[in-house]
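ok new one. same drill as before - structure tokens go in, u give me an amino acid for every spot. 152 of them this time. try not to just spam alanines like last time pls lmao
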């Protein structure tokens, strides 16, 4: 099983890979105008601002799409590749198929992007740290996957 600290670092790298372009994409949607004016992003989305909803959908598609496509292709996101680990199916070690990759990505990102940006990652981390013997987060359990170390 992959080292928990490396998994966290890989997730931070992947988050940055997706978040930095999203920060630039957010400029035309005016997300920084409302956030810097004292209104929270959640209030901005909830007040019916069409740009907020559009940006929220773009963010969901970006995070879920990135994770799904990368894991489906090779079992590795760029962060996992840098940390020398990959996602594998629990039953046979193969690369996850599209359904498993999508399930994993949706459970990983959707709660964090819609309602629980601080609580959800913490909950996933707790599951990874206490789960024995496979160190599965809820996203791994849902998709029947594990994260393993690789030689390359």
């Amino acid at each position: 099983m992959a080292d928990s600290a490396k998994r966290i670092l890989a997730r931070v790298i992947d988050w940055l890979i997706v978040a930095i372009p999203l920060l630039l994409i957010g400029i035309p949607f005016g997300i920084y105008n409302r956030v810097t004016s004292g209104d929270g992003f959640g209030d901005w989305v909830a007040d019916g601002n069409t740009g907020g909803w559009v940006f929220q959908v773009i963010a969901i598609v970006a995070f879920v799409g990135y994770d799904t496509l990368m894991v489906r292709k090779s079992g590795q996101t760029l962060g996992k590749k840098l940390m020398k680990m990959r996602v594998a199916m629990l039953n046979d070690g193969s690369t996850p198929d599209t359904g498993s990759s999508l399930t994993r990505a949706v459970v990983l990102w959707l709660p964090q992007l819609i309602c629980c940006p601080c609580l959800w990652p913490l909950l996933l981390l707790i599951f990874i740290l206490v789960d024995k013997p496979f160190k599965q987060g809820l996203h791994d359990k849902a998709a029947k996957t594990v994260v393993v170390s690789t030689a390359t």
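The chain has a mean pLDDT of 88. and btw The helical segments are 4-25, 31-36, 41-46, 50-74, 78-82, 98-114, 119-130, 138-143.
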